[in-house]
Design goal:
By secondary structure, the chain is α+β, with helices and mostly antiparallel strands. The protein is built from six helices and nine strands, in the order βαβαββαβββββααα. Strands 2, 4, 5, 6, 7, 8 and 9 form a seven-stranded mixed sheet that branches. Strands 1-3 form a two-stranded antiparallel sheet.
């Protein structure tokens, strides 16, 4: 069964992570002349941080590391950008309790592991993105590691702004506790289907919205 993690527990972890990101910003600018902003996304942004009760996988945060859109016909070399971020993260994580960064398909992952109990306490996924400079404002490009092809590329992903609008309506009518309850319920019945958390969040919002306004 999933449970919510108390803010008093995860807030210090978030502060530490953002200090690490700021160190990466300094390293990237100094060493490679690249700048980026960062944004907390996912369950951490929505204060819906969960973990399995008495489990060994802990909880995690998700951040977008947002590059400035390339201009004048220039395009980022995806592999080079990923290498720069990996190297800068390794430097920033030196002498911390975090594991070395792992190059995942759509993110860079770090974790804090309790080796004595053989379990993950918490972790973080960093996605490298930039918003399009081609007039499109309905999505962004994220850095993908095509492991089977041993290549990297920036792939376009559309935004789901409809969900945010529904959340605003629900919050105005004091329905946020209903979203929390529905999200946790969906997490607990999702073990077999293994849907991503962002999909479950969207489903929870739609369920609450339909119950409040369409029934």
């Amino acid at each position: 069964m999933y449970e919510y993690v108390k803010k008093s527990e995860y807030a210090p972890v978030r502060r530490d992570l953002e200090q690490i990101i700021k160190c990466v910003q300094i390293e990237m600018r100094k060493k490679y002349g690249l700048t980026f902003q960062f944004r907390l996304i996912g369950s951490g942004k929505r204060h819906l941080v969960t973990r399995i009760q008495n489990g060994n996988s802990g909880y995690d945060f998700d951040y977008n590391l947002v590059l400035t859109p390339p201009d004048n016909g220039y395009h980022y070399d995806a592999k080079t950008i990923k290498q720069h971020f990996m190297a800068s993260l390794k430097t920033a994580l030196h002498e911390t309790k975090y594991s070395f960064p792992k190059d995942s398909t759509s993110s860079i992952t770090i974790k804090v592991i309790d080796k004595s109990q053989k379990k993950v306490l918490y972790g973080c996924d960093f996605a490298v993105i930039y918003y399009g400079n081609n007039g499109r404002n309905d999505g962004y490009y994220y850095l993908k590691n095509n492991k089977s092809q041993q290549s990297y590329e920036f792939v376009f992903r559309s935004l789901n702004s409809d969900i945010d609008k529904k959340v605003q309506d629900i919050i105005q009518d004091n329905g946020w506790p209903d979203i929390r309850d529905e999200y946790l319920y969906l997490k607990n019945i999702n073990k077999r289907n293994k849907k991503h958390s962002f999909s479950l969040y969207a489903e929870a919002v739609n369920n609450v919205y339909n119950k409040m306004y369409l029934q």
